[in-house]
Write a structure and sequence with these properties.
This protein is an alpha+beta fold. The chain is about 35% helix and about 20% strand. α3 runs antiparallel to α6.
C-alpha cells in the first residue's frame, strides 16, 4: 500500500499532488526513488479479517448476537422461499385438488432441509389446541388424517 500525505493511494487510479496530475499507471511504472522524491511511502497492507465475525482484526463480534442474527436471517430466507407456494398446500387440503409433486418435493423441501442443518434453537412453545385433522407429507403427496374425538 502506498501512502501520500497520510492518505492511502490506490493502484491504477490517477491522483494529483502539488498541482501535478499523475496518470493511473504511474505508481506501477515509477521507480522507488521517483515515488520517494514526491513523498510517497510504502506501508504493509492491513491484516485481512472476516468482517462477518470480527469488528477489526483483534476484536471478535459477540457469538450470541451472531447466532441470533444468522438464525433470524435463515428463517427469513426460508419464509421468503416458501411463501409463494403456500397457497398450493392450502389448495391441496380441499377434496379432489391434487398437489403438484414438483412444488412439494423440490420447491418446498429445500428450504426446510437447509433450515434443519442450522444450529438448534429453543423449541417452540407447545400448542394449546388440538387440530381436528393433520396434513401428512408422504412420498405420494399430502394426505389428511382425521382425528377422532
Amino acid at each position: 500500500m502506498f501512502i501520500l500525505d497520510s492518505k492511502p493511494l490506490a493502484l491504477d487510479r490517477a491522483f494529483t499532488h502539488n498541482g501535478v496530475q499523475y496518470p493511473a499507471n504511474w505508481l506501477r511504472l515509477a521507480s522507488p526513488a521517483e515515488r520517494e522524491a514526491i513523498g510517497i511511502t510504502e506501508a504493509p497492507d492491513p491484516e485481512p479479517y472476516d468482517q462477518r465475525f470480527y469488528w477489526n482484526p483483534d476484536l471478535p463480534k459477540d457469538h450470541t448476537q451472531l447466532v441470533e442474527q444468522w438464525v433470524g436471517q435463515t428463517k427469513t430466507t426460508a419464509g421468503t422461499l416458501l411463501a409463494p407456494t403456500d397457497w398450493m398446500i392450502t389448495r391441496s387440503a380441499e377434496p379432489g385438488q391434487p398437489l403438484m409433486k414438483y412444488w412439494l418435493n423440490v420447491q418446498r423441501s429445500a428450504p426446510r432441509v437447509t433450515k434443519r442443518k442450522r444450529p438448534s434453537q429453543t423449541p417452540p412453545a407447545p400448542m394449546s389446541w388440538r387440530p381436528t385433522s393433520l396434513a401428512v407429507l408422504t412420498p405420494r403427496g399430502v394426505t389428511l388424517n382425521r382425528r377422532r374425538k
